[in-house]
Amino acid sequence: MQYREVGDTGIKVSTLGHGTMRYKDNDNAIEMINHGLSLGMTYFDIGGAYGFRGDDDNGETRVGAALKGIDRSTVVLSAKAQPRLGDNAKVDMGLGVNTRDQMWKCIENGLRRTGVEYFDFYQLWDMSCADDFQAGCRESDSPLQAMREAKEQGLIRELGLTSHNPLPDMVIDWLDRTPDFKIATLYYNFNDRSPDKVLNYAREHGVGTVIMGPLRGGLLVGESEAFNDALPELAGLPVQEIALRFLLSNPGVSTVISGMNEIAHMDENAQVASLAEPMTPDQRARFIAAFEQFSQGEPLCSGCRYCAGSCPQGLPVWSMMGYYQLASIFGVDSGKLEVAKMYGAEKGPQICTECGSCVEKCPQKLPIPEYMKRMANLAEELAGQ
């Protein structure tokens, strides 16, 4: 296992981290965490809302049970709570909090359930829009106030944020306005590269970055010949290994978290994370250049989600574009399956009216209506196979 420092915090973590959301049951959680520890894994991303069944049965208690008897100094724990405006907070789950006292309760619950005296990192979870920043970081009576107080008391070592919807300039603005954020967890993979700008900013400013969604929810798996010409020396490797190599070759990435619940998957990922150089700088450059070749000069959808909610027909444009690219450009079977499901679907590409609302939102001004026509044709073709 390889290890890197998280920004300028001085905290070292394994380059493969463990997302603790997808356990099959409590026994599976203990099995996976213990196996991860045996492989040298140190970074664990935890959340009270994960598999929540009650105060004594949730993501935090499962991690706590697995870590009993483990030397606390050998693991790095990152906990979190979600800020939201409004009066719908579920404090026991760490969801929708927007006051100092609510966040304090989340922190106290997490420490008690996990059975530890401090968290290495505590993050504002799922910061996806300006309202979320307002809910979490306003000047008075805010969740951030509680996090800062907990850090002063030694209950938290460093603060940060996570963003499932990384609009790059917005996330950079949040980091710039909150210099005590020393870690950022970002949704990023080779098909969704909009956080590139955030990664560069973070590296320049001593902020560590954690990557979630490395396999795009399990879609970046299987076989693909798409990169064989660009990277003949890696030909034959499964898509999931190429995806992890790409992420770990970025020097700005501190660790990549994966929600593993199978020993075999953890072993495969750990093998990649044990490589001193997952991709050389030259290989990485060729990999990125291949994207332009695949698109035949047309820019690829980066997954920035600026178009989200723009379609009057209710089409989830950004996710459909992602599936289409996986199918048509990379030849990934999981992408082909998702496109095939679009054929005849109520919210399929055939209902696009070519109004252009999504194009107005798209920073690249992609010809999305034209892509929808191609998508509809491909969906029909794949559904008939």
Give an account of the 3D structure.
It is built from 14 helices and 10 strands. The protein is of the alpha/beta class. The chain folds into 2 domains: 3-286, Alpha-Beta Barrel (TIM Barrel); 295-383, no CATH class. The strands form 2 sheets. Strands 3-4-5-6-7-8-9-10 form an 8-stranded parallel β-barrel, surrounded by 5 helices. Strands 1-2 form a two-stranded antiparallel ribbon. α7 links the parallel β8 (181-187) and β9. α3 (100-114) crosses α5.
Summary of the model, kept short:
With 385 residues, the protein is α/β, with parallel strands linked by helices.
Question: How would you summarize the topology of this molecule?
Answer:
Layout: E1 3-5, E2 12-14, E3 16-19, H1 26-38, E4 43-45, H2 59-66, E5 76-81, H3 100-114, E6 119-124, H4 130-137, H5 143-152, E7 156-163, H6 168-177, E8 181-187, H7 196-204, E9 208-212, H8 239-248, E10 255-258, H9 263-273, H10 281-294, H11 317-328, H12 333-341, H13 357-361, H14 368-383
Parallel strand pairs: 3-4, 3-10, 4-5, 5-6, 6-7, 7-8, 8-9, 9-10
Antiparallel strand pairs: 1-2
